[in-house]
């Protein structure tokens, strides 16, 4: 058993050294003792549009008995995109049980990012995404209040209790995402003047 553990530990060391030399500054050691690593992956080297941070923890049984524990971090990665990418990584693990797979994972993620960059997908502009959400909220707002517009008295009461200015969503400014250790942070800033704007 100890010999197996030693063999796995050596495989992990060899894999980490190889990945560190291949990916250079994009490869980051978060915690050597806990075997936590992070790699920044992008669609191209010169002017990346799509980027993603893959964080992995290598358990003692990796690679022969356990898969890596992983987390995918990107502001644009959610819903169907996240599910499809996670399924692809798990499929790679199943097809290569017992082998070192981090390189395969990184290159699969890069392939997905390159496909996004080459397809009709626009650049992941967080401001655009927020504006789209804001527009959707506006549509929902109109739909919610259309029945009120039919009742003139209620509409007048509504107009006097809340001015139209209070109903406008303020512009939301988004900072660049930064990754520190195992967490990704992104600042969001919006000037608000009413409690209603805060809740919306």
Q: How are the SSEs ordered, and which strands pair?
A:
Layout (H helix, E strand, L loop, with lengths): L1 H22 L3 E5 L4 E7 L8 E7 L11 E5 L5 H17 L6 H17 L7 H25 L1 H10 L2 H4 L5 E2 L3 E3 L2 E3 L2 E2 L5 H5 L1
Helix pairs in contact: 2-3
Averaged pLDDT: 76
- What name does CATH use for the topology of the domain at 7-116? Ubiquitin Conjugating Enzyme
Q: What global shape is seen?
A: elongated
SS summary, helix count: 7
Largest sheet: 4 strands, antiparallel
Q: Ranges with pLDDT <50 over ≥5 residues?
A: 136-166
Please state the second-level CATH architecture of the domain at 7-116: Roll
- Rg to the nearest angstrom? 24 Å
Structural class: alpha+beta
What does this structure look like?
- This protein has 200 residues and is of the alpha+beta class.
- The protein is built from seven helices and eight strands.
- It has a four-stranded antiparallel β-sheet with strand order 1-2-3-4. Strands 5-8 form a two-stranded antiparallel sheet. Strands 6-7 form a two-stranded antiparallel ribbon.
- A hairpin with a 2-residue loop joins strand 6 (178-180) and strand 7 (183-185).
- The longest helix has 25 residues, at 126-150.
- It is elongated and about 65 Å long.
- The relative contact order is 0.11.
- Mean pLDDT is 76; it is low at 136-166.
- This is IMPCT protein.
- Residues 14-116 form the RWD domain.
- One of its GO terms (biological process) is regulation of translational initiation.
């Amino acid at each position: 058993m100890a010999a197996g553990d030693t063999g796995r530990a050596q495989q992990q060391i060899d894999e980490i050294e190889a990945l560190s030399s291949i990916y250079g500054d994009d490869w980051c050691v978060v915690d050597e003792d806990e075997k936590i690593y992070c790699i920044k992956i992008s669609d191209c080297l010169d002017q990346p549009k799509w980027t993603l941070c893959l964080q992995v923890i290598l358990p003692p049984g990796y690679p022969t008995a356990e898969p890596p524990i992983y987390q995918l971090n990107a502001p644009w990665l959610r819903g169907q995109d996240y599910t499809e990418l996670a399924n692809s990584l798990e499929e790679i693990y199943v097809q290569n049980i017992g082998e070192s797979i981090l390189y395969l994972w990184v290159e699969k993620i890069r392939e997905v990012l390159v496909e996004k960059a080459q397809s009709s997908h626009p650049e992941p502009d967080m401001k655009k995404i927020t504006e789209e959400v804001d527009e959707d909220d506006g549509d929902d707002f109109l739909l919610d209040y259309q029945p009120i517009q039919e009742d003139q008295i209620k509409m007048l009461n509504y107009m006097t209790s809340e001015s139209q200015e209070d109903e406008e969503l303020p512009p939301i400014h988004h900072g660049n995402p930064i990754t520190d250790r195992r967490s990704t942070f992104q600042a969001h800033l919006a000037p608000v003047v009413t409690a209603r704007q805060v809740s919306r």
